[in-house]
Amino acid sequence: MIYIYFIWFLAILIILNGVFGNFSSLGISLSLIGAGLAFALQQVILSFAAWFLIIMKSDPIRLETGSISRARIFWEMLRT
Fold first, then answer.
1. Rounded Cα distance, 54 and 52, in Å
2. 27-68 confidence digits (pLDDT tens)
3. Residue 15 burial (10 A CB sphere; 0-12, 13-18, 19+)
4. Can you give the residue ranges of every domain in the chain?
5. What is the pLDDT of residue 25?
6. Alpha-carbon gap, residue 17 to 21, rounded angstroms
7. Residues facing residue 63 across a β-bridge
C-alpha cells in the first residue's frame, strides 16, 4: 500500500518538474501560493482557532436572561 503512495508521489513530482522546469521554482511557487492562502484565509483560521478553544473549555458558558438561566450546550462555528 505504501508503495502505491510512493509511486503517486514520484509521478506528481515528475509532472510538476516538467511544468515548472526545476525544483527551485517549484518551491518558490508553492511558498508564494501558501503565503497567499494564509493571508486570504487569516480570518477563517483565526475564527476556527477561537471556536476550537471555546469547545475545549471544560465548563459551558452560562447564559442568564432575567430569571431564566441555562448552560449553552449547542456550539456552532462563529466568526469572531
1. 5
2. 788 889 999 999 999 998 888 888 787 777 656 566 666 666
3. exposed
4. 1-40, 42-80
5. 77
6. 5
7. 70
CA distances from 40 to 10, 34, 56, 75, 79 (A): 30, 10, 26, 25, 15
User: In sequence order, which residues have a C-beta less than 8 Å from that of residue 61 and are 6 or more positions away?
Assistant: 54, 71, 72
Q: CA 52 from chain center: how many Å?
A: 12
Rounded CA separation 45/53 (Å):
12
Q: Who has greater pLDDT, 7 or 2?
A: 7
Does 46 or 26 have the greater pLDDT score?
46
Query: Which one has a higher pLDDT value, 5 or 17?
Result: 5
